[in-house]
Predict the 3D structure of the following.
Amino acid sequence: MTKLAVSIFVESTAQAHAAAARAAEGGADLIEYRIDRFTEPDCHLPGLVETSPLPCILTCRPIWEGGLCELDDEQRLKVFERAMTASRPPAYIDIELDSYHRSSSVRNIVARWVDHPGQVGPADAGLILSSHDFERRPVDLYQRIEAMAAAPACRVIKLAWQVRSLRDNIEAFEIMRQGYKPTIAVCMGEAGLPSRILAKKFNALLSFTTLDERESTAPGQPTIEQAKSLYRWDAIGPLTKVYGVIGYPVAHSMSPAIHNAGFDETGFDGVYLPMPIPPDYTHFKATVGAWLDMPELHFRGASVTIPHKENLLRFVQERGGQIEPLAARIGAANTLTVTEDGGLFASNTDYAAALDAVCNSLGIGRDGLAGKRIAVIGAGGAARAIVAGFAAAGATVVIYNRTLARADEIARAFTAGGTAEPAATAAELSGPAPPQGKVVAAPLEKLCDSCCHIYINCTPIGMHPHTDDSPINPSDAPRSWGEGTVVFDTIYNPIETRLLREARTAGCLTIPGTEMFTRQAAAQFEMWTGKQAPLDVIERAMRQK
Ligand code: NAP
């Protein structure tokens, strides 16, 4: 069973004792003491090892391998030697492959301490031979693995290298799977998180975490709290299905918290990760293709956000998958679903979530939207999906936008009998019959003359940190402003925007963007798991985040 280790990188044994106690409380299985940062004499080391609350790894990383120790190999071994006088030795010692290789004296001394076939005296510690590259994948990665595998004293192979792309994790998964010997394979950097969290899926010896982000020993290392609570470490097994949010950037996405909380609540065997993919179709195709082409990964779906919503349609079309007809007309999809036999389906849960948020507030079904007049403010990606949904439901939609030409283009694409082609990728795709509602475009300045039932803000005006802004000034409000009117802000940070606050004061019925966000996530959840989404859990996870 893959262990969760906490790397402790502090200056003194007193700090290390305190950190080790916290790691044990936090549910770690192992502790790595990074003694290269210690500023006190090594006479304290035996005590640290003996009283460690968990089995430990002792590491004294030299500067030339990314650590802080300035001593040469011989002096470094003397530090280890002191620690090895502990009555209870460390479970492992970590020695860099390069030190081990270049000096027979290092090999001979280390052989006295570690458990291996040719040992002469009693020795319990296991030898981790390690290799780190903080810049790139080493060109001789596989030669390194072979050298470690061939060393009789080596019990564990450890490789860590900096990655630029999510695709690079696949190589780490393969190395873990090959299992020449117990293995640790770490992709460093933001894109390397899957190698750390899915180490358990691929039966690696362990994965490293930190107690506190500020004390991490390598780029991209999660905290133990994140690994266990956010990314479901304890629930991960070889058959766990993998999902993620594809976008750029995605580091602050709420989706991992939401979906993993939902998986937890329903007992679904899945894990959901951030999947940063740089803009442009080439990256998208290569990365998503590589993840799909590794069957043992069980990659079963993704939420897809800016800038890849159009790329998803193109990719699924090229791979011969299915596309939801309205998503094809919108020209953007936000959900990838992968069936057990590898079939792909691209759909858009944004427009349905917006429709359902409005219908739920009004206590009506979607058929009740026919004939309603909807003002959509903005003409970007969110507006396009929302206009398509309301028009398909038979509503009359007026798009108010700063740039009239953009509103015009959407109006022509989605009005009944409209002549404009939808977005370029969608034009190549087969869509359903033209929608029934009428869609017209208007300049933003005309909003004050509007007389609609429902107003939907699809601009970022009022979003954090510009929370004092609003797309509608109360002194210049639309004619239908007040009781009986619905105001829906797609922004979800803050939950109550200035627009919603002022609309509520004026007696309007208000809907926050969180309603849309949770519903689009819930629809994805249901598509992937076949289970009813726990809306209360999803909402709570989102509010906490
Ligand atoms: P987008 O493609 O960049 O479009 C933004 C639109 O807002 C454009 O039409 C732009 O007008 C207009 N706009 C921007 N700044 C403006 C300003 N200062 N004054 C007047 N108009 C302005 O963005 P998007 O992807 O559609 O997202 C828009 C909003 O929807 C965001 O706030 C996002 O948070 C929200 N959203 C929410 C959810 C949810 O689940 N709740 C989902 C998706 C999006 P021009 O055409 O003139 O440039």
